[in-house]
Amino acid sequence: MSRAKIISAPFTHATTSVPRTMLLVMLALAPATLFSLYQYGWPAIILFFIILASSLLFEALSLLIAKKPVTPFLLDGSAVLTGWLVAMALPPWAPWWIGVLGGFIAIVLGKHIYGGLGQNIFNPAMVARIALLISFPLEMTFFMQPQPLFAEHSPSFMQAMNLIFGGGINIDALTSASTLTQIKVLQFDGQSIEGATGLVGDLQTAMLGALPGSMGEMSALLLIVGGVFLLLMRIISWHTPVAMFASMALIASVAHFFNPAYHPGVLTHLCPGGFVLGAFFIATDYVTQPVSNTGRLIFGAGVGLLTFLIRAYSIFPEGVGFAILLMNAMTPLIDHYIKPRIFGRSKSGEPLASKQPGGGVQ
Amino acid sequence: MSKEAPDYGVIVADGLWTRNVVLAQLLALCPLMAVTATATNGLGMGMATTFVLVASGFSVSLWRNFITPEIRIPVFVLIIASQVTLVEMGMNAWLHELYKVLGLFIPLIVTNCAILGRAEAFASRNDVLPSMVDGFFMGVGFTAVLVVIGGIREVLGAGTLFSNASLLLGEQFSFLEMVVFGEDYKGFLLLILPPGGFIVLGFLIALKNVIDAARVKRATLRAGAKGLPVTSERVA
After folding, report:
1. Total structural domains within chain A
2. Does the residue A351 lie in any domain?
3. A348 inside domain
4. Among the residues of A16-66, which ranges form H helices?
């Protein structure tokens, strides 16, 4: 008797799986993250691991409460990736409880309340960022000039522990407003912003980072490298990011052309990495973006438009998170109106007539 | 019209837990979201609503045989609206400070679907006394949920509990006013804002469902041990 194992169909498998996808996205995020961790030093590193740990902890607790298998879901990487993205969306020197709360909001309120992986309406990491931003505006806009690891002003490991867990050292001297915040302040004062845009005037600074901001905003270039990697690996499709960049570039350049004293240039909108991070890593979340390619183009264009409107006319200097959440809410509507044609049927769902003589459709 | 003797135990249990206005019927969510930023506001709103529930239960039940079905809803609304106006004027006169806080929401008790719901579902079909008991315990159940949600939102959102309680209950109740987390607690603003109401409410409903499921399971086990069939979902 043959010892061959009997396998039932299907016999061909794609190599994609949740753990593989998550792993590749983390790989794509790694260069930008490592660079940011280096630039912001020990406090950022400690906070990063606090958020990862709290995400995993709350994931395990939620799975236990929901009576789902804990180990396979915990090891599929989705909780780590969510926590990672939360960390990228927070100020790098935020206190520890912001990180723990961020993990809780993302995993419990953003994901498991809806039924776990694949069921959520909104991107969990952005839910966490926005909930924290609304609740703790002071801590969430507490940015500083990058202090590279081992540089002169960089806090040591013990100072960093003090900073994250207790607010121990005087850091007033190091804090700084992000570019978009400076622009917002000038806009509110009714002053011309043309002085402030000098900050990101040259492409090199804007691409490489070394500007104050959230952790993920550091280096646009490394984020683009990661995004292109994801495109090449076919983890994400080009539609959402390209539509986001195109709509933002178009609207921002038109606005800048007509009123350069109020609207910053395209580069200022695109380059501090928040927009790039959103375009490649957040808006392309499978669960919360439309299914069809046309839908994704609309989705991305909507995110770009809303981001511009929020940055230009609301009290918030940064709008990517809000824009993505608002378009997440629109996703079911987009999917309702823009459906891919079913194979063998017309756009309206009628069966196609057979072209073979005599072979009609039953 | 049923002429069986009303089971007051069932009416009380329905109002407080089984058919709780908020946790089971999911009615009255508009005032719930609006006023439960603090426990005191929840308590004041709950007490005002309870008064209207009892009064409307009394009037609707008293007049139920004279109201033709075709125009019952406008009549119910008229009865409820006049009683809400009484409550509003009374609060303005005797609880003026609280009125300044809750004033906007008091007239909205008219549109509170829980009250119309009880008039329609209970008071128009039952005698006066059961209707008033039903209104009272529905109101108490509603108040309890308002106070619990208000308390959770207030403690986490602002770090206090029962702030301004003396405005509602008089100076002798000022001991209720507590600062839970100390002066330098900055507050979790999200919970004070409307999303906090939805989040806390969602967790409370989930908690009730978990408790109910556990009770059904226990009752099933008990009945099974005695070899009895489980006949009803309702757990006595």
Report:
1. 1
2. no
3. no
4. 18-65
